[in-house]
Write a structure and sequence with these properties.
The structure holds 2 protein chains of 2 kinds. Chain A is α/β, with parallel strands linked by helices. Chain A contains 15 helices and 13 strands. In chain B, 37% of the residues lie in helices and 14% in strands. The chains are: A alpha/beta, B alpha/beta.
Chain lengths: 489, 446
């Protein structure tokens, strides 16, 4: 397949007319001052619709996707995306609505938003949700701004946030973005928060702690009630990163565990598509004491139907210009309604079962980060393969591509050397799980017998192993006419 | 409905391998650690039931007459070529994730690279990222970026910035010791003298939106000249369609440009998902937030794409990252990329010209109504403020009862502007819709 960019295709003067009849006279632009005009048009490509469709269809074929095959990317919950949700989001009654429509002309959308918010609140055991954050990381940001607003409202300028060493990178980055100082809490040998270390870190400057439960090692923080007690006693709040909620959904609720603020990733637990890296959605739920600070607008129900509520004196403001990723919330609404609470219980049960099945079978040749049962994901370490065979987690991952699988998350969490983090989700059949196990065992044999097969992998991908260091050194991040694309010139 | 494929036998086999007899046993430790709590019941629906129910809910939104909406104010109805949703619905695009494994993500990575190139072309700047959440949050991230680059804390912001964008800026900077100062406007347009008077050594950035919230063209080049020899950065917020005609942020001397990318082939979607565009000069690339796709090569020298400059990012640098952004709006960025590829330079300019012409024709007609006039004299692009002889909310209500979505009543943002309405027109507005609007206005106005 050619790697030509769209800029190397087409011909000057070729175009498709979408908005005016050919030959329509150009309008009078004399009211625009010359200084306000651009000197030359943007160098966009000139192609027919057929050429554009062929180009991007060609690109799509160079992508792995859930629709293509197994995608056990830890912490990302790459499950099947319900097609009904896609179909309904493509109805013009939903997608064509202007965000500043009169409330009376958006009752269907407002109802979906209201009910989505209620269902998420029920599933999390919280008072209220905002659907505004556009992604998990923005949800974290929103949540930590709520924490800051809560303390500020009490005249308490607390600046410290505790983050476990196993946390997603977004957690410390978010805390810093929201103006906090980050203190890292070490994990115990068992891979959970070290309570003694935590007790030493709390102080009267503690604003809160950010936790993922189960954590990124796939281990449930069984001391969660004690952790909440320690943090609450110090005057701090407890934040739940919902990246791993797929392990618990329909069975257990962050609110019951003692969490005050929660973000969920609709594109993980609630089955909305990942889009190649967005758009997702990161709604944030809170206990009652934090409700006054939620961003606007919120949807409320009144005598005249549903409406956007903007006038909330203690609000932190807005995270985005409008009400958030409404069409993603609509997809999550469809997903929750299709499955119901019982179906969601089956989601978490089956996800945890599949992960344990894989862990049990793979632990015969790969070292698990921690022994025993896991939740919806687990981490293997390829340290032994590296030391004994000179084969790294990266090599194993790239060889999996040849065998028809997307690799697990690599080198995360940072607390495990040569980490491979595996999350099968609930939507993969036992045949697929068995085939993946066979592939992983085959790779381990290959590592002994012909390690270069792994070092040089992938052999059967659109391109061979790419050099990331070279890309960062000689930066080429936009096409130019003199760019050396394949077939250019 | 269920998407779980396990049969009873499959489940039994997996449980047996674990020495268990039922799935609940996998949660015993969790249950023991928590107080008892019941998850409320959400009843399940079949696909056919739910699809019917949603059709009823969809109808509550009223008739989706897309050509009879005269509202913009940050979200714009432009024609979306049919090829865009078709390409976006390919599972290889929409069910993929962030391209962590470059070798099997070349489609997404190359599309990102093409997107970055097109954004640079629109803005007249050197380097763009692979997208932000929306225009408003992109502006807030740009402001934080300027504070990092200059190590200063004062942000001068035009009074004529979209109020929601200003609110997002306040929210993002609430806890990080920024000082937001408003630049005054004169006759709806930012005053360069006002900028000059407020500029000081502690200024991190000057933020101007063009066209501004009133639709008016701002003196971008004057502001750019004022800042040319100053450490403060010039942040320009653009309307991407207007860049078919208007001078680019780069030409005006901007250091960072941001925009709401929704008008580029993304439906109005009741506010989201949208698309933030952000570009800057190469010297600031290491302070730029967001993912970036860059060219690399494989072991046999074949060209390929990877996520690059990841050393700025949260998963490497944690609390010292340039931003907490993880995933972005990749599929929306793909929509914009396909849009610009389909339009080409000529089509892109045509959309801008037709939007400009439609708005000016509409303004001429509305301003000729008794008691109505344009609120400002300055040149505008495709939005304008109309002074009405009645409260604008009343006019909006009357027009909606006739199936028309009016311009936006400005009293919701500025009480003193309660008799003003912000109208918008684009290339999708038909003559018939304008006639309906004019007939309705004549009925409603005294």
């Amino acid at each position: 397949m050619s790697a030509k960019t769209i800029f190397e295709k087409g011909r000057a003067g070729r175009c498709t007319t979408y908005v005016t009849p050919p030959g329509a006279p150009p309008p009078d632009l004399s009211q625009l001052p010359a200084a306000a005009l651009r000197a030359k048009p943007p160098a966009l490509p000139e192609l027919t619709e057929g050429e554009v469709v062929r180009h991007y269809t060609g690109l799509s074929r160079k992508n792995w996707a859930v629709d293509v095959g197994f995608y056990p990317l830890g912490s990302c919950t790459m499950k099947h995306n319900a097609r009904l949700a896609e179909q309904i989001a493509a109805w013009p009654e939903f997608f064509a609505a202007h965000p500043l429509r009169p409330d009376g002309s958006a009752q269907g959308l407002l109802r979906v938003m209201y009910e989505t918010e209620r269902m998420l609140s029920h599933l999390c055991g919280l008072a209220r949700f905002t659907l505004q954050p556009a992604a998990g990381a923005q949800g974290e940001h929103c949540g930590m701004l709520l924490v800051a607003a809560y303390h500020a409202d009490r005249g308490d300028r607390r600046k410290t946030v505790i983050v476990p060493d196993s946390a997603h990178g977004t957690n410390p980055a978010t805390a810093a973005l929201a103006g906090f100082k980050v203190r890292t809490c070490p994990s115990s040998e068992e891979g959970i928060v070290d309570l003694d270390a935590l007790r030493k870190l709390v102080s009267d400057d503690l604003a809160g702690i950010m936790l993922t439960n189960p954590n990124t090692l796939g281990i449930f923080e069984r001391d969660i009630q004690e952790i909440c007690r320690i943090v609450h006693d110090a005057g701090g709040l407890v934040y739940y990163d919902g990246a791993n909620f797929n392990a618990l959904v329909g069975r257990f609720r962050p609110g019951d565990m003692g969490f005050d603020v929660v973000h969920l990733n609709l594109h993980k637990t609630f089955g909305t598509p990942h889009g190649g890296g967005g758009p997702g959605a990161g709604p944030v739920g809170v206990v009652e004491t934090l409700e006054p600070y939620l961003p606007v607008p919120l949807v409320t129900e009144g005598p005249e139907g549903f409406r956007f509520e903007e006038d909330r004196p203690k609000t932190i403001g807005r995270m985005n210009a409008f009400a958030g990723s409404v069409l993603i919330a609509l997809r999550a609404y469809v997903y929750m309604r299709l499955l119901g609470t019982a179906g969601l219980r089956d989601v978490s049960g089956s996800a945890v079962l599949a992960a344990n099945y894989l862990k049990e079978r793979l632990s015969t040749v790969y070292q698990p980060s921690h022994p025993g049962r896991c939740m919806h994901e687990f981490v293997l370490s390829a340290e032994r393969q590296k030391d004994e065979l000179g084969v790294r987690a990266l090599d194993i991952a790239k060889r999996l591509i040849d065998l028809g699988f997307h690799p697990p998350t690599m080198y995360f969490p940072l607390t495990v050397p040569e980490a491979l983090m595996i999350e099968p989700t609930e939507t993969e059949s036992i045949e697929t799980l068995d085939a993946f196990i066979d592939a992983m065992l085959q790779i381990e044999r290959e590592a002994r017998e012909s390690p270069d097969l792994l070092h040089d992998a992938p052999h059967h991908a659109p391109v061979g192993r790419l050099d990331e260091v070279a890309a960062a050194k000689s930066l080429d991040v936009r096409w130019r006419p003199d760019s050396t694309g394949e077939g250019a010139g | 409905m269920s998407f779980v494929p396990h049969t009873e036998q499959d489940r039994a086999r997996m449980l047996r391998s674990l020495g268990l007899s039922n799935v609940d046993q996998l949660f015993e430790e969790v249950r023991a650690a928590l107080p008892p709590g019941e998850v409320p019941d959400i009843p399940a629906a079949s696909e056919s039931e739910l699809s019917h129910e949603l059709w009823e809910i969809a109808r509550l939104n009223g008739r989706p007459d897309r050509t009879a909406c005269f509202r913009g104010a940050g979200a714009y109805e432009h024609y979306v070529p049919a090829a865009i949703p078709h390409l976006l619905s390919r599972g290889e695009f929409f069910t993929a994730y962030t391209p962590y494994q470059a070798e099997i993500s070349q489609g997404t990575l190359q599309a990102m690279y093409e997107f970055q190139t097109m954004v640079c072309e629109l803005f007249g700047l050197e380097v763009a990222n692979a997208s932000m959440y929306d225009g408003a949050s992109a502006l807030a991230e740009a402001a934080l970026m300027a504070m990092r680059v200059t190590r200063k804390r004062r942000l001068l912001v035009t009074e004529a910035l979209h109020p929601h964008w200003l609110q997002v800026l306040h929210t993002y900077t609430a806890n990080v010791d920024a000082d937001i100062v408003q630049i005054p406007t004169r006759d709806g347009v930012t005053s360069p003298d006002g900028v000059a008077a407020l500029l000081d050594d502690d200024t991190a950035a000057v933020i101007i939106q063009n066209p501004n919230v009133f639709g008016l063209i701002e003196p971008m080049r004057e502001v750019g000249s004022l800042l040319a020899d100053r450490p403060a950065l010039f942040i320009a917020a653009a309307y991407p369609i207007a860049l078919g005609l208007l001078a680019t942020p780069g030409e005006a001397g901007a250091d960072i440009a941001v925009a709401e990318g929704q008008p580029l082939g993304i439906p109005l979607s009741f506010g989201g998902p949208y698309l933030g565009l952000l570009a800057t000069r190469m010297e600031h690339v290491r302070q730029m937030p967001g993912r970036i796709s860059g060219v690399s090569c494989d072991s046999s020298g074949r060209r390929g794409y990877v996520l690059t400059l990841q050393a700025r990012e949260q998963h490497i640098r944690r609390e010292r990252a340039t931003s907490n952004i993880c995933s972005n709006q990749a599929l929306c960025a793909l929509a914009a990329t396909v849009y610009l590829a389909l339009m080409g330079p000529a089509g892109f300019r045509t959309v801008a010209e037709r939007s400009f012409a439609a708005a000016h024709e509409l303004a001429r007609k509305l301003a000729a109504l008794p008691g109505c006039s344009l609120a400002f004299d300055a040149p505008f692009f495709n939005e304008f403020v109309l002074d009405l002889p009645l409260p604008a909310e009343d006019v909006a209500r009357e027009l909606w009862s006739r199936g028309l979505i009016s311009g936006l009543p400005l009293g919701r943002w500025w009480p003193e502007r309660r008799s003003q309405m912000l109208f918008c027109a684009t290339e999708v507005i038909t003559d018939a819709a304008v006639e309906r609007l004019m007939a309705a206005m004549k009925e409603v106005l005294p």
